C-alpha cells in the first residue's frame, strides 16, 4: 500500500498551519508534523480507522489524531488522504470528499 494526499487534504494542512501559526508557531509546526506523519501507520494497518457507512460503496474511514479528524479512502493498493480538520470545526458528512 502507498499513501497519496489529495489536493484538498494538502490544502487542509496549509489552512491549519495558517490558523495556528500566528498564535503559536512552534505548536503549529509540531501539530502539522504529527498530522503529516499520522497516515504512515495506515500502510501496515489500513483498516484501523472507523468505517464511514455514508460513503458506501467507497471504503472511506477516519482516524482521530489528537484533536483532529483525518478521513481517508482505501482504493486498490492506495490510501488516499481526503480531508483533515480540528474536531471543533464540527464537520460532518461531506459529499465532496
Kindly describe this structure.
- With 97 residues, this protein is of the alpha+beta class.
- The chain has one domain: YaeB-like fold.
- It contains two helices and five strands.
- The radius of gyration is 13 Å and the shape is globular.
**What portion of the residues fall into strands of 2 or more residues?**
25-35%
In sequence order, what are the helices and strands, one letter per element? Answer: EHHEEEE
Instruction: Give the N-to-C terminal Cα separation.
Output: 20 Å
- What is the helix tally? 2
Low-confidence sequence ranges: none
Task: Output mean pLDDT.
Answer: 91
Question: Main sheet?
Answer: 5 strands, mixed
Strand order in the sheet with the most strands: 1-5-4-3-2
Shape: globular
CATH evolutionary superfamily: RelE-like
Count the E strands.
5
CATH topology: the name is YaeB-like fold
Q: Percent helix among the residues?
A: 25-40%
> What is the highest CATH level, the class?
Alpha Beta
Output the structural class: alpha+beta
Instruction: Report the CATH architecture.
Output: 2-Layer Sandwich
Rg computed from alpha carbons, rounded to a whole number of angstroms: 13 Å
Structural domains: how many: 1
Amino acid at each position: 500500500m502507498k499513501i497519496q494526499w489529495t489536493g484538498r487534504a494538502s490544502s487542509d494542512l496549509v489552512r491549519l498551519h495558517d490558523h495556528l501559526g500566528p498564535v503559536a508557531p512552534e505548536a503549529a509546526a509540531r501539530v502539522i508534523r504529527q498530522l503529516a506523519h499520522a497516515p504512515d501507520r495506515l500502510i501496515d494497518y489500513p483498516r484501523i480507522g472507523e468505517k464511514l457507512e455514508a460513503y458506501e460503496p467507497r471504503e472511506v474511514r477516519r482516524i482521530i489524531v489528537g484533536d483532529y479528524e483525518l478521513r481517508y479512502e482505501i482504493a486498490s493498493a492506495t490510501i488516499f488522504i481526503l480531508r483533515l480538520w480540528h474536531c471543533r470545526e464540527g464537520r460532518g458528512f461531506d459529499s465532496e470528499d
